[in-house]
Structure formats: C-alpha cells, structure tokens
Amino acid sequence: MRNKHKKTLQKELARLESAQDHIETEFTQLDDLLKLVGFEYGLASLKAVCMKMQTEAEQ
C-alpha cells in the first residue's frame, strides 16, 4: 500500500514540476516580449502601468 501511495505522489510531483517548468518558460518569454515592445523592465513595467491606470480610474 505504501509503495502505491509513494508512486502516486512521485507521479504527481513530476507532473507539478513539469507544469512549473512550462510556466517559468512562458513567464520568461512574455517578459522578453514586453521588453522588445518597449516595457523597459518587462512584466514589472507592465504591472506598474496597470496599477497606475487602476489608481487613476478609481479617482
């Protein structure tokens, strides 16, 4: 029983590690694209612009 549970956990861990790798790749590609189109610091710049727009919209 323990081996079956351990194998299930190992399989789930492998799936999650794969998903994390995919997300990190997508994040890096998006950050690079944003820099190419003029957001100097990539996602950080986009986030700052969005936050400023939200603040201005609330006023």
Tell me about this structure.
With 59 residues, the protein is mainly alpha-helical. Helices cover 86% and strands 0% of the residues. The chain is built from two helices and no strands. It has helices at 2-36, 43-58. The model has no long low-confidence stretch (mean pLDDT 96).
Q: What is the alpha-carbon Rg in Å?
A: 19 Å
- Unreliable residue runs: none
How many strands in all?
A: 0
Residues in helix, %: over 70%
Largest sheet: number of strands, sense, barrel closure? none
Oligomer: single chain
- What structural class should be given to the helix and strand makeup? mainly alpha
* Number of separate structural domains: 1
Shape: elongated
**β-strand amount:** under 5%
Mean of all residue-level pLDDT scores = 96
**H/E element string?**
HH
Per DSSP, the total helix count is 2
Termini gap: 60 Å
At a glance:
This protein is 86% helix and 0% strand. The chain has 59 residues and is mainly α.
Please specify the SSE layout and strand pairing.
Layout: H1 2-36, H2 43-58
